[in-house]
Design brief:
The protein has helices at residues 5-12, 21-32, 38-45, 49-61, 73-80, 83-91, 95-98, 101-127, 133-141, 145-153, 155-166, 171-178, 183-193, 198-202, 212-229, 234-247, 251-268, 285-288, 291-309, 318-324, 331-343, 349-354, 359-367, 369-378. By secondary structure, it is mostly helical.
Length: 382
């Protein structure tokens, strides 16, 4: 009997997401430093979804904590103290130690998309003069928490989902065939169970598309997912068009804007075992260069019989065909024969020689003074 959504929530709600080893190492160094601030903790932890989730879950489990969840990591650490940070470094499972093979790569891919989405959302919120762009970054970072939990604790089922996706089925359809529900439904239910910030919950609900902040989070997550596949696909182009409308800039400006953010995110996650999307931008010539030589000779071979079948109608365009067929060896004698009849027609210079009736107007000019002179001399004679 297959498990329901509620069964999966009860199975996953008490299990932590693994943290990356480098994050734990850097946080440990910050703990040992006396000059570390809450902003320093936020700068390191905010790139790791597993470590970030542990801080917010500690806040949700704290009975003395206020009912409203903190909007960012620095605020959460200020309310809870450094204790949850220290506990996370000691108790969180290390990703590379607990997962192997496809499950490890799948969770690394989810963490990478989350880091890219967080970078986009933070930059967009900052440029739109949002009061709390860090909250938008946290919402984008934890947007796919259900998928992350499934990769960590249901790897066999996730392998089946990815197999269906590789067969050109949508992610939602594949998840419903395997689990019986969409993965976003699981993510939304877990965010409510863990008492994550309200913006994180709103971005997983359909009505979130009608609010600029939650729409930015949703758009950042989709852009991170599609650009990971192909920066130049129609789906990515449509998302960049939405970015241009969201920021009220032109499409070309939006393309450059998003590409710069992808490069910035690659710098931010440098050192972490996460694949970056920015290097995929360098693959622009790869799909175009092999197609041009393959398609060029086909078009020339198909164009050759057309020129041979109708040489008289396209006699005026003969020099153009000569230029196009220079790299081809066979059409050269054909074009040469077509050029010879043009040279053999010397009829055009003959009318030019015959059109020298310039002495005729001279004769008419000489005739004009003859009738004029006698009448002038005839009047004074009598």
């Amino acid at each position: 009997m297959s498990l329901t959504l509620e069964d999966w929530v009860s199975r996953l709600k008490d299990k932590p997401l693994p943290a990356m080893a480098l994050t734990v190492q850097r946080v440990t160094q910050l703990i040992d430093s006396p000059n570390t601030t809450n902003a320093d903790y936020q700068r390191v932890i905010s790139r790791d979804p597993g470590f970030t989730l542990s801080i917010f879950r500690a806040f949700g489990n704290n009975k003395r904590a206020p009912k409203e969840a903190p909007s960012n990591l620095a605020h959460a650490i200020a309310l809870l103290g450094v204790g949850p940070v220290i506990d996370s470094t000691q108790k969180l499972p290390i990703l590379k130690k607990v997962l192997k093979g496809a499950a490890r790569q799948g969770l690394y891919g989810s963490y990478s998309r989350a880091a890219h989405a967080a970078g986009y959302a933070y930059r967009w919120g900052h440029d739109r003069k949002d009061n709390n762009p860090e909250e938008m970054a946290i919402a984008a970072l934890l947007h796919d928490c259900g998928e992350m939990a499934l990769w960590a604790y249901a790897k066999e089922e996730m392998k089946k989902v990815m197999l269906l996706v590789s067969r050109r089925q949508s992610r939602d359809v594949a998840a419903k065939k395997v689990f019986g529900f969409a993965i976003e439904e699981l993510s939304h239910t877990l965010t409510e169970e863990w008492r994550l910030p309200q913006l994180t919950q709103d971005a997983l609900h359909p009505y979130g598309a009608f609010h600029p902040r939650s729409l930015g989070v949703m758009l950042a997550g989709e852009l991170a997912r599609e650009s990971e596949k192909d920066w130049f696909s129609p789906a990515t182009a449509d998302l960049i068009e939405l970015v241009s409308e969201h920021h009220r800039i032109s499409t070309n400006e939006a393309i450059a804007y998003v590409h710069r953010q992808a490069v910035d995110t690659a710098h931010d996650i440098y050192g972490l075992p996460l694949p970056a999307n920015a290097p995929l931008l360098l693959q622009i010539p790869a799909p175009t260069t092999p197609q041009e030589p393959a398609s060029a000779p086909k078009s020339k071979q198909q164009a050759a019989p057309k020129k041979a079948s109708q040489p008289r109608k396209q006699a005026k365009a003969a020099p153009k065909s000569v230029e196009q067929t220079k790299p081809v060896e066979q059409p050269k004698p054909i074009t040469a024969k077509q050029v010879k009849p043009k040279v053999e027609q010397p009829k055009q210079p003959q009318p030019i020689k015959q059109t020298k009736p310039k002495p005729e107007p001279v004769e008419q000019v000489t005739r004009k003074p003859e009738p004029t002179e006698p009448p002038k001399q005839a009047k004074p004679a009598p």
